[in-house]
Amino acid sequence: PRTIVIDTDPGQDDAVAILLALASPELDVAGITTVAGNVPLPHTTANAIRILDLAERADIAVHVGADRPLVARAPVTGAHVHGPTGLDGSDLPAPSRAPASTDALGFLARTLRERDPGSVTLVVLGPMTNSANLFTRAPDAFSRIRDIVWMGGACFEGGNITPSAEFNVYVDPEAADIVLRAGIPLTMVPLDVTHQCLTTPARLRRFAELGNRAGQVVAGMLGFSERFDLAKYGGSGAPLHDPCTIAWLLRPDLFTGRECHVGIECAGTFTRGATCVDYWHVTDRPPNVFYLRNADTDGFYDLLAERIARLP
Ligand code: BDR
Ligand code: CA
After folding, report:
1. Among this protein's residues, is 63 annotated catalytic?
2. Which residues share a beta bridge with 239?
3. Distance CA 113, CA 140 (A)
4. Per-residue pLDDT at 205
5. Contact between residue 169 and residue 274 where contact means Cβ atoms under 8 Å apart
6. What is the ipTM of this complex?
7. How many angstroms is it from 221 CA to the middle of ligand 2?
């Protein structure tokens, strides 16, 4: 199996991404690191453990990462979308254990140094703060990363937290800027893709009817975040973001995209946190990401349902 570390701010959609990874024998989850994002760090950490509890995976450790972005500013959260705990809509009990450490950077550096160079994929489901810290504080370990798969950014679809910025970039643009210029292979899964993967009523029902507890929890959580997103986007369902990263690792054939240059706008009167995507190659800036553009959404939901069904 391919070794991954999941860096995350659960968040209902982060939770579903983690469950998809845990249900997939093609992936070996070497650990989970947490970051402040959708909700403050104590909640994202507790939520990561609650999800591991649901999947009965006491063998996977959670390490606590950054509680704030690189540059000090008023905190941005997504509690208006995810509810105050980040996992509203689920009835998961309190976490069974404490995190393994409060040193996500130490865990990441150790994991990367212990294993063969180029053997660990970092899946980033929130702001890039932990990855940027790793790059600055442990560059030798960072350079051993095989690749990064990141849910973040937007181009054709516009922003979801400001008119031009996607949430994970907006929370910590300086961190994203560092990582995108770090020279590590990186796949971006932007809103352009995730806004295609709508949680229609039929898809939610399918999870509810899988007959296991994980299916119930997934249906409950996605039904909750949908309430906000439906009003916002007015479609036949809400976008589903983070699980697309894991689906890309499992089934790249479900997605299309291309290599291109992406820059991060760290200043800007209106555009702080925007991803400047040179999708049409109108500059000679060398490509630094593989930018996903479209998804086979039925294929994606078939995969997700089939995998969630394997869980307790
Ligand atoms: C991203 O922001 C969060 O709300 C989601 O968990 C996802 O990672 C979407 O913009
Ligand atoms: Ca997230």
Report:
1. no
2. 198
3. 8
4. 96
5. yes
6. 0.99
7. 14
Which is catalytic among the residues 195, 241, 261, 281?
Answer: 241
Check residue 295 and give its pLDDT: 98
* pTM for this model (two decimals): 0.97
Phi, psi torsion values for 12, nearest 5 degrees? -60, -45
- Cα gap 21→214, rounded to integer Å: 13
Place of tokens 């039904």: 223
From 13, 160, 225, 233, mutation site for ligand 1 pocket: most ligand atoms within 8 A of C-beta: 13
Which tens digit of pLDDT belongs to each residue from 240-267?
999 999 999 999 999 999 999 999 999 9
Q: φ, ψ for residue 239 (rounded to 5)?
A: -65, 150
Rounded Cα gap, residues 230 and 18, in angstroms = 23
How remote is the CA of residue 283 from the centroid of ligand 2, in Å?
Answer: 31
Q: Helices 104-114 and 129-137 sit at what angle, rounded to 10 degrees?
A: 60
In degrees and rounded to multiples of 5, residue 123 shows phi and psi of -105, 115
* 195 token code pair: 């806004």
Residues, the chain: 312
- The confidence score (pLDDT) of residue 80 equals 82
Of the listed ligands, the closest to the CA of 167 is 1
User: Which one of 14, 20, 38, 160 would you pick to mutate in the ligand 1 pocket, going by the greatest count of ligand atoms within 8 A of its CB?
Assistant: 38
> Which of 114, 115, 111, 126 lies closest to 34, judged by CA?
126
Residue 261 contacts residue 288 (beta carbons within 8 Å): yes
Question: In DSSP terms, which residues pair with 263 in a beta bridge?
Answer: 276
Q: Which residues pair with 119 in a beta bridge?
A: none
SS3 52: helix
Q: Which residue has tokens 């950077």?
A: 105
The pLDDT value given to residue 259:
98
- In the chain, which stretches have pLDDT less than 50? none
pLDDT value at residue 127: 98
Dihedrals phi, psi of 262, to nearest 5 degrees: -125, 125
Are 11 and 242 in contact by the 8 Å Cβ rule? The answer is yes
Amino acid, single-letter form, for residue 127: P
